[in-house]
Design goal:
Length: 353
């Protein structure tokens, strides 16, 4: 088993997929045709030569969502798989080609009556603009109606089941210029930006949401009060009550009450997903009995774009994949033993649902 895992992971890691996933797509398609011959395979374009792949058995209940892209490598050696004991090093080993290998091999060795309950969504552009998942949301009617759960095979061998949302906004502050010797005659746009972010941060506290002042650009002339400051803010949303409409109203109220002179726009908004029921969590842990699996804290995790599809269709999701570290780094690695254990967990789950 470990030899097969290493061989498939080597093939996937050494296939470039950070600009275009077309070669990677062909490898996945051929692998499924050879090893899961009863699966239906559907492809649909995202942009130019980028496409998503939907593959599934006769009655899919679990859809494993695997993104195909990686970040750009920082040096050539990252594109080669290397092993040091239990650690397999290489670009994408942890994020998320190791999890993809676990999902594929798990399905391959299931009895036919069980493997027909499995489906795969291989999608592009997770690392940057989420174009692949956005395209999938628009074509969500392609998801078989039998699907009851989504599973993203990436974590650190812990179980995630919820996700904070994320919002990004641009805001431009208008002040009043004056000589730096007489600052009281002006309105410092940069200081206005700091004042706005402090007020907004306080207002977001009741929504369990954090605010990051991601960028701030103003005048570099030390001899005058800056009358313009452009900034970008990002919010990690911890409460489903903080909708885009609610956030917009909060910002408008702050601007009006404090007489800020600004231009602003929300450029990205992804809703938080917090489960109303724990049934799917209990189902996973029950199926995976015998493994030491801890629950992930959604307030400490990044955004998982399977939430976009989960929110659209009302289908709960799990995030669970092999242990590893250094995502996006030059020493990214995944545990070979953990991939093997993930295969066992996926198979036990498929047999129980």
């Amino acid at each position: 088993m470990k030899q097969e895992i290493t061989k498939l992971l080597k093939t996937l890691v050494e296939c470039e997929s950070f600009v275009s996933e077309s070669k990677y797509q062909k490898i996945l398609t051929r692998w499924i045709q050879k090893n899961l011959p009863g699966f239906t395979i559907r492809e649909f374009p995202v942009e130019k030569n980028r496409k998503n792949i939907l593959a599934y058995g006769n009655k899919p209940i679990i859809l494993l969502a695997c993104h195909m892209d990686t970040v750009r490598p920082t040096k050539g050696s990252e594109a080669k798989l290397r092993q040091a004991g239990d650690k397999l090093y290489g670009l994408g080993t942890k994020d998320m080609k190791g999890g993809t290998v676990a999902a594929l091999i798990a399905a391959k060795y299931l009895p036919l009556e069980v493997s027909e309950k499995i489906g795969f969504l291989f999608y592009c552009d997770e690392e940057y603009c989420q174009k692949g998942m956005e395209a999938m949301v628009k074509k969500s009617s392609l998801i078989p109606k039998t699907v009851k759960y989504f599973l993203c095979p990436e974590s650190r061998f812990n179980l995630s089941f919820a996700s904070r949302g994320v919002a990004v906004f641009d805001i431009e502050f208008l002040g009043k210029s004056a000589h730096s010797a007489r600052p009281h005659l002006g309105i410092n746009a940069i200081e206005e930006a700091f004042r706005f972010f402090a007020i907004l941060r306080s207002a977001l506290g009741k929504f369990k949401s954090s605010l990051n002042l991601a960028s701030l650009n103003g005048s570099t002339d030390s001899n005058r009060v800056p009358d313009l400051a452009k900034s970008t803010g990002s919010i990690r949303i911890g409460d489903e009550k903080l909708t885009e409409k609610a956030l917009l109203q909060i910002i408008k109220d702050i601007i009006k009450k404090n007489n800020f002179q600004v231009k602003f726009s929300i450029t990205t908004f992804r809703s938080a997903i917090m489960p109303k029921s724990k049934a799917h969590i209990k189902k996973f842990l029950s199926a995976a009995k015998g493994f030491d699996i801890k629950l992930a804290d959604p307030m400490l995790a990044g955004y998982n774009d399977i939430c976009m599809l989960s929110s659209k269709l009302g289908i709960p999701f799990w995030g669970f994949g092999p242990y590893g570290e250094n995502n996006h780094g030059p020493n990214e690695w995944v545990s070979l033993q953990s991939i093997k254990e993930c295969i066992e967990v996926y198979q036990k789950l498929a047999k129980k649902i």
